[in-house]
# Entry
Amino acid sequence: MNPVAIFRHARTEGAGFFSDFLDEAGIPWTLVRVDEADSVPDSALRFSGLVFMGGPMSANDDLPWILPALELIRNAVSNGIPVLGHCLGGQLMAKALGASVRKNAVREIGWGRVEVLDPDNEWFGGLDAFDAFHWHGETFDLPDGATPLLSSRWCRNQAFSIGPHLALQCHVEMTPEMVRQWCENGASEILEHLGSSVQSSGEMQRDLDSRISQLNRVARRIYGAWVEGL
# Structure
């Protein structure tokens, strides 16, 4: 099997639990360190799937790697190579497929409930809701032909799918270390926006191991469904 390409856009926003899942499943993967100036490949054909992680930048920013990433996503979709996006990664997918990425009404930071719009869909294994981790100030609209999958109180579009391709606004890849690091790095952002849609650092880290364990179980369902398309 060709490797899954995982695109990292910020050092602290790596593959997290997703790479653990691939290792357990015996699926090869390679990391493209966009944050360290790795080149974005010009073709998806040598990979079995593409996975785009999060990052503090916007899909609308004028950064040298964004246009190549958008073109690579379109190349993968046109060739039936599954694409998976987390937060910024989901926004890149939406933009590549013709939808807009824009400012959300509020910042959504911390643990929050997401509703599964159709519990019988293939991605969530009968779940009707779960607690996901959030850290975003922008949101995506839905591309033509997309199926909306998740919604939250603070952000209407939390996930969509098109065939084997899955875009997530929320984070399901989190580990305890990632949550702690993000809280440390984002302390000023938390304080500036603290309110009903933004949790305190202490609240985000309360019962952290239990929360992550529950999220990992959800992520296994989602990732398990996604790798079926590889």
The domain at 4-227 is CATH 3.40.50.880 (Rossmann fold). The mean pLDDT is 98.
